[in-house]
Amino acid sequence: MNYRARVQARRRDVGVEEGDVAGEEYEIVVWAAPSAAQRILRTTDQLGHRLRGESEPAPLERPEVAFRSVMGLFPGGATLTVTVDSTLKEVLRSFGADPVAQRSHDLHDGLLRPVEIPSRTALQPGILIIEPTSFEGSEKSVLEELSRRGRATSIFWNGNAVTRLSIAENGQLLDGFEWWDQATHPGVLDLFDGLDIYDYQDKVARGLVVTERFTGCTVTDDVITQTQAMTIGYRFAH
Fold first, then answer.
1. Could you tell me where the beta strands, DSSP code E, fall in 11-108?
2. Beta-bridge partners for 10
3. What is the pTM of this model?
4. Is residue 89 classed exposed, middle or buried when 0-12, 13-18 and 19+ CB atoms within 10 A define those classes?
5. How far apart are CA 54 and CA 136, in angstroms?
6. Structural domain includes residue 191
7. Over the stretch 119-147, which tens digit does the pLDDT of each residue have?
8. What is the Cβ-side half-sphere exposure of residue 82, based on CA atoms within 13 angstroms?
9. Domain tally, the chain
10. Which residue from 51, 54, 77, 231 lies 20 to 30 Å from 13 (Cα-Cα)?
């Protein structure tokens, strides 16, 4: 009986990008099939070109690299939600939070600390909500309410590497998924342009790239620091 094998190598250019510490990955799939000529499906890494004595291609643009440090600020996980064209009052109502502000210096007190974040595409600044210990922002009902007059995204992850990216617009959840190849909405798929959706190492960072593309808001370390420095917040009504 004849067999065929598919060999895939990924992340062989590790070390080229600043902050890229993930190791190489290989996958070999073997199945029974008639004999056939070798097929080369894709050759993109620079190392492979060097080993074959070929001219190296230009490095692939990896926009998610810029967001790895944001994920690193929450080693135990968090939920980052961004909405545009919503007021603070509407955000608090969407989360079911008490509109009366409370003072606290404890970042794990369960209070919402919404902070304005510039948007390149919306008329008004966006609003970022960080939940270090909860995931209300990833709930369908919350996102649909947040996006009633615009757009909203939410990226959730935890210490067990479980993630969820959710995207809503005009009061409707467009898509929500853990694995990126589960996305189905055409408008969401367009946001994946140039991203390696099969790289599980950078799912959160890619989620922040999509957030930037969809809302025009860039979540940076400085914005996170600004939020963490807030001494007032709003408690969930329930």
1. 25-32, 77-84, 102-103
2. 25
3. 0.78
4. exposed
5. 51
6. yes
7. 998 788 999 999 888 899 999 999 999 99
8. 28
9. 2
10. 77
